[in-house]
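Give me the fold.
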Amino acid sequence: PTKADANLVGMKSNDIGALFAAYRHQIAAVIPQHLTPERIIQLATTVIARNQDLKKCTVESLIGAVMNASMLGLDITPQFGQCYFIPRENGKTHKTECNFQMGYKGWVQIFRRSGEVSTIYADVVYENDDFKYERGLEPILRHIPTDGERGKLKYAYAVIKYKDGGYNFEVLTRHDVMSRKARSMAKGSQYSP
């Protein structure tokens, strides 16, 4: 196959590791100080070697996804939720490509590293929880989860508190969340974060 058609189907971990090792200098040039190129190569090798669908992705798209994660200093281990590698067929080329997707935990890492944020978190509200929020000049957000059966999902929210004492929050209804999910490119995928 031509270089543009190349994928990693049939390759063993050592071969995948050697492929990414060839990009060691490029990875080293873009990663933050808390990471090493060896760690990035090790993670990429492990994640890709264990996922047959990722092996079907073009080499170019896999390298691009690894470079994106490297530049942002994110761990690509799916269980950590910082970012995801999502295989999707490109409708124009009909080739499977690896799409880099930020996870909310990745955004949290980036916000914390900025030095401007003291607290950031997200949570969900169920119909039996005690929940109140108001907008306006004196916004209010109060959430007390119930001890018993919480019921159905009603809201999701995120809160960010800055080191200067300011804060922001965003509340989404269940309908908002499901509408966004329905519009997502990954809506029917088993890899949807």
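The beta strands are 83-89, 96-102, 117-126, 130-134, 140-144, 153-162, 167-173.
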